[in-house]
Amino acid sequence: PAGVTGVLFVVPSTNDNLAEPSESFTLTATVTSGNTANTGDSGTGTILDNDPCILNVTGVVTNVSCPTGSDGAINITVTGAVGTPTYLWSDGATTEDRTNLAPGNYSVTVTDNGLSNCTATASFTVGTTPDLTPPVIVCPVDINTTSEASCTDAPVTITPATATDNCGTPAVTGVRSDGKLLTEPFPIGTTTIVWTATDGSGNTSTCTQTIRVVQGVLLTNYTFSGATAYPFSANYTAAGVTSSVTSTEPFSVQNPGSLTGTLAFKTNLVQNPALAMENGVGAGTSKYFQFSLSGVSSYRDFKLYLQGSRLPDGATQLSFAYSTDGTNFTSNGTLNLPVHNTYYQGVIDWTGITALNNPANLYVRIYPVGGDPNSSSTRLMIDNFQVLGGGTCTPCFNVKALLEGALLNNGGGVLMRDNLRVSPFTGANYIPVTDPYGTATYSTRFTRVLDGLNPALQTITNPTAMFANKPNPADDIVDWVFIELRDKNNNKTVVSTRSVLVQRDGDFIDVDGSSCIRFPGTPADDYYVVVRHRNHLGVMSASPISKATLTGGGLVDFTNGSTAEWNFGTTHPVAGPAGFDFTGLSQKTVNGKRALWLGNTRHDRQVKYRAPNDDPFQVLRDVLLYPSNTTRQYNYDFAFGYFAGDVDMNSKAKYQAPNDDVFLIFRQVLLYPLNTTRQYNFDFVLEQIPY
């Protein structure tokens, strides 16, 4: 009111050192009005408490269980809060407690909403628990396999070891004892692979796998298991081989009890039961088991593998004999059985025996020697009887090459178009099922030799599967190609040929769908490898490819420079004297890859634009003689099919512009690196293969 000069509030002392957001008080006021003081007036009011902020944060840390884990935790406790605390962690989280934390430093700021400017901060470190536990590793089973007789190695598919660990998934690596890659063929004999599992803390565990390669082909394998009486047929025989077992004595399949001994060649445990001769004693040739094999004329250098055992008074030795007529037997080899109820492994080596070179039939007799004929415990048992035969080791290898024509208009990548398989004009497949290089169109320029003359290797085994869309488009078929193996001492001499197919990525595929190109009638040796095509210039390896590569499934790759390319250099019999150097011109570089030069429609080892003997003439011929071109128009635009003149391999031969095949030949000649003056009649675009 007017004249009031001041109000004095008397606040009772209530400092209780407790932090409350507010406290209520009874206030006594003295009002001064003018010169008169009126005392005793009173009322109530509320003021904020000025108690101190005593917020406190503590916590319990749980370290991660593995160095690479994220199962750490922080459980905090907050005391001294007036209101409801809020939380802000250094990584942005807003919960009180933390879980699933990786190792590291974490801090939290806690704010008491009941007091002004009341916060507290705490820091924590989530550490790691040392991992001292090594992984658990499980080795793959040992592998026993065969290699053909004169081969030095065999391809083996390796399955890696498996491993588990208390801290994540360990890395598994394998190292061969011969230092080679796991994907390379394995040599004759025994090779070990040491598998190592390594976890994130560096703990390791190892195991060892054994790979054994025996020289030969497994022809038959008897295990005698899983039957109460032997059915006189083999458990396993190779293709084309038949076999049987007979005996002069009654025999059966018996369970000999729990026996120990060395494993036979094939991965077969000592079997229960085994083939048993009850009266297994002898001193001559009157008692025997006989194994008879037929269809073995492709083999020689035979080896026998088996296990033998006896009861206490059975024969103490097995004697072996061979025959090719089933009547006249020659003894060769023995296996001693010194301790009863124990299996012993025998390896009877008949390699080098001339009489056993490629017999039509092979008869094997096993005679018991020794034992007590007066005993009732003379049972003789054999198991895991196997015969290996050596054959002629022949080439089987992988090849890769690209065709320039099929690389055109492919979007700039390195996958060839497959327009001959699926025509963009008609949707049809024009690639023949049978080797085209044996037809009249090509046979005068592509001479088939040795394996190339084998009818079984000239036709696609399963055309439907071969020409189907593959799960990986890179595996779709592009066309047929022609391979030559040339003599290592004379690279003009063709020893053998094969016609096979090429996929979009350049991989060659045999007629049966295998990536390993077989030359079953060709002796194993070092050879120059040549790849040719019906309208491209061919290419040849700069030097002979090793026998090991050609018989061991190795790769001859003409797409990336890994297989060096042969060239005339300055010695070409025609172009050399003219001063031309063909170094580096065996193939053309297209989109970063090496590819065969397109345009050789006459398959005469030259790309030529100007008559005579020019390549455009073949394009014209394909168009004029097309069955539907009844009026013989050179500009006919519907010559769809499989033609030598279709140099861009789009399933159409076209003579007249635009998009014609003739222009591609013209451009090839005009832009050839040695045609520096850009002459359309340049006559030296030449195939770099000796002739």
Short account of what is shown:
The protein is 5% helix and 36% strand. It has 5 helices and 42 strands. The chain is flat, with a radius of gyration of 44 Å.
> What gyration radius follows from the Cα positions, in whole Å?
44 Å
The low-confidence parts are 1-37, 41-49, 227-233
Number of helices: 5
Fraction in helix: under 10%
Count every beta strand, where a strand is a DSSP E run of 2 or more residues: 42
**End-to-end span in angstroms?**
129 Å
Q: Based on CA inertia axes, which overall geometry fits?
A: flat
Q: State which percent range the strand residues make up.
A: 35-45%
Structural class call reads mainly beta
Largest sheet: 7 strands, antiparallel
Query: Roughly what is the average pLDDT, rounded to an integer?
Result: 88
Can you give a write-up of this model?
- With 691 residues, the protein is mainly beta.
- Helix content is 5%, strand content 36%.
- The protein has five helices and 42 strands.
- Strands 19, 20, 22, 23, 25, 28 and 30 form a seven-stranded antiparallel beta sheet that branches. It has a five-stranded antiparallel beta sheet with strand order 21-24-29-26-27, with no helix packed on it. A five-stranded antiparallel beta sheet has the order 34-33-32-36-37.
- The longest helix is centred in the last third of the chain and has 10 residues, at 661-670.
- The radius of gyration is 44 Å and the shape is flat.
- The N and C termini lie far apart (129 Å).
- Mean pLDDT is 88; it is low at 1-37, 41-49 and 227-233.
